[in-house]
Amino acid sequence: MKLVTEQMEQFLSGGAWIRRIFEQGLELKQQYGEDAVCDFSLGNPDLPPPAVVGECLAEMAQQADKPFAFGYMPNPGYPAVRAALAEHLAKEQGIALTANDLLLTCGAAGGINVFFRAVLTPGDEVICPIPYFVEYGFYAGNHGGVLKPVPTRPENFDLDIAAMEAAITPRTRVVLINSPNNPTGQVYSAETLRELAAMLTRVSAGRERPIYLLADEPYRFLAYDGVDVPSVLPLYSYAVVIGSFSKNLSLPGERVGYVVVSPLLDGREKLVSAMVFANRILGFVNAPAVGQSLLLRALGQEVDRSIYARRREAMAGVLTRAGYEFVMPRGAFYFFPKSPEADELAFLKRLTAERVLAVPGRGFGLPGYFRLAFCVDETVINRSEAGFAKALRA
Ligand code: PLP
After folding, report:
1. Do the Cβ atoms of 25 and 39 come closer than 8 Å?
2. Do 238 and 254 belong together in one domain?
């Protein structure tokens, strides 16, 4: 009996190794206790949200008996939240924005889906540098799109713009970048982004359907050593930025994000209206009422970044002393070291036996590497050193 589609059957069996590693981790935790396992598999921010979040929730509780306290609202979000966010993003992105240039979404994930629903025709291609957040392929596929992964520079995972241009076909509709990057921690420089924008401007000229540049930026707030995270909105008319409060306010379960369109785009009202409509018909309806109220109060605040910075140093020390090869992440909370053997699944088996959990690079379209999420306490990072060293020697 076929209870689900063949595609879903394939998706479910295709990710079997992810589940295996996850289940192995659960077994280890049961067997040895949570504290004996160093789990770097999940990018689930562990820092508490800024104090204002709790204060705002307490105030909201006082108002909960009012009619429509949690009622439906316009599909793009509360007008006051849209307006405040536009003002905030104008400073952050370095370009004048109004409330009409953006909409609130159910996280960055909801935002990407809403954008794809608005612009993709079945068979359209979405170019994306390797390695990449695995959900991108599913999100494109949800709307008939096809992800076309393109190699990056092997020495540091920076964009290879010539490779991106070579991958463009008449069906290319979107170039999707993510900086600071999950899983590599790379942050693209202003010069690289200008070069990319220039290439896209040249290629899009004369096309009836322009190629959008979609910048997924949930880690924008988290760059280290004073590294700048340049904005794409002033660089290209068809630039669209996706943001989120999952990481900077540690609110991933509350599902609030946004999509903002470059004000250089003439006729952008059409694109925004299409995304607002998509927000409705995909069943998101609107971003959560509570989350929007929280972000209105917390706008401009963030979790204590210095904790992530210390963990990054600690993790770099652990990996260096244990003998691993890696590029120091410039942003986000991930390391993407080279696997000491070509088959990273075989290596991760040994690492798991040392009770250290990581995600294989093939989960991000790049076998031969593995990802470590350092949103865990520094003691866990330090404790993992012996396991890393032993797995390498084995
Ligand atoms: N994009 C990237 C690169 C991510 O790493 C994540 C979450 O980890 C998301 C999007 C989804 O974020 P959100 O929780 O805002 O939907």
Report:
1. yes
2. yes
HSE at residue 383, side-chain half, CA atoms within 13 A, is 17
Residues 261 and 288 in one domain: yes
Is residue 1 a part of any domain in this protein?
no
Phi-psi region of 372 (alpha: psi -120 to 50; beta: other; left: phi over 0): beta
Measured at the CA of 133, the angle between CA 131 and CA 138, to 5 degrees, comes to 120
What's the pLDDT at 87? 98
> 100 and 202 in one domain?
yes
- 376: amino acid identity, one letter: V
Residue ranges in the chain assigned as alpha helix (H):
6-14, 16-32, 51-62, 79-93, 107-119, 135-142, 161-167, 190-204, 268-281, 289-298, 305-322, 344-353, 378-383, 385-393
By the 8 A CB rule, do 363 and 336 touch?
A: no
Express each pLDDT in 171-189 by its tens digit: 999 999 999 999 999 999 9
So what's the pLDDT on residue 20?
A: 72
CA nearest ligand 1 atom 5, residue? 182
- pTM tops 0.90, yes or no: yes
> Using an 8 Å Cβ cutoff, are 331 and 224 in contact?
yes
Q: Is the CB of 183 under 6 A from ligand 1?
A: no
Buried b (16+ CB within 10 A) or exposed e, 173-206: bbbbbbbbbbbbbbbbbeebbebbbebbbebbee
Token pair 């994930």: residue: 109
Low-confidence ranges of the chain (pLDDT < 50): none
237, 266, 298 - which closes a domain: 298
Please state, in angstroms and rounded to a whole number, the distance separating the CA atoms of residues 18 and 369.
15
Atom of ligand 1 nearest to the CA of 109: 16
**Residue 257 CA, closest ligand 1 atom number:** 15
Q: Which of 243, 275, 298 is at the close of a domain?
A: 298
Amino acid at 305: R
Q: Give backbone dihedrals phi and psi of 133, rounded to 5 degrees, phi first.
A: -60, 120
Could you write out the three-class secondary structure of 123-187?
CCEEEEECCCCCHHHHHHHHCCCEEEEECCCCCCCCCCHHHHHHHCCCCEEEEEEECCCCCCCCC
Contact at 8 Å (CB) between 361 and 367? yes
Q: How far is the CA of 37 from the centre of ligand 1 (A)?
A: 25
178 lines ligand 1 (CB under 6 A): yes
Residue having the nearest C-alpha atom to atom 8 of ligand 1:
43
